[in-house]
Amino acid sequence: NADASLVDVNRWNVLHYAAYYGHAEIVRSVLATSDRPEIVNAQNSRECTPCAIAAHGGHKGVVCALMKSKHVDVNIRDADGRTALLNAAYTGVVALIEPIVAIGKAKLDAVDNNGMSAV
After folding, report:
1. What are phi and psi of 117, to 5 degrees?
2. Burial of 109 from C-beta contacts in 10 A (0-12 / 13-18 / 19+)
3. 60-67 and 50-57 helices cross at what angle (nearest 10)?
4. pLDDT tens across 52-65, in order?
5. How far does CA 74 lie from the centroid of its chain?
6. At a CB cut-off of 8 Å and minimum separation 6, what does 84 contact?
7. Using CA of residue 43, residue 47, residue 52, residue 54, what is the dihedral sign?
8. Beta bridge partners of 117
9. pLDDT tens-place string over residues 47-101
């Protein structure tokens, strides 16, 4: 029963690390016991959420696992103004974009601080 809300000095929680390293099983395990908005949508020191990190890293399994959380907010912006959808679009991998769009919450017209959009 580890506390999933614990963070390090850069405000990374267990979901940030699982997203960064592409560990979908860890994400599913954490969500099974700690599916709370303050954990799923936690922002690190660069204001990145676990979902944005997974999308940026090209980890489809993690993105799909996070999309199953009833609390995931794909529209939270990081320090560069990027949402999870924008991070997925930057990879150019359609398989990352599809699950984010499929939940029906993503702002498709979002632009980052440089005026870049997902389309």
Report:
1. -120, 175
2. exposed
3. 150
4. 999 999 999 999 99
5. 7
6. 49, 51, 52, 54, 55, 63, 74, 75, 76, 100, 106
7. negative
8. 111
9. 999 999 999 999 999 999 999 999 999 999 999 999 999 999 999 999 999 999 9
Q: Are 82 and 55 in contact (CB under 8 A)?
A: no
- Tell me 81's DSSP state: S
Q: Which residue has the tokens 């099983």?
A: 25
Model pLDDT for residues 14-45, shown as the tens digit of each residue? 999 999 999 999 999 999 999 999 999 999 99
The amino acid occupying position 18 is A
pLDDT at 119 over 90: no
Question: Is it the case that residue 1 has pLDDT exceeding 80?
Answer: no
> CA–CA separation, 70 vs 66, rounded Å?
9
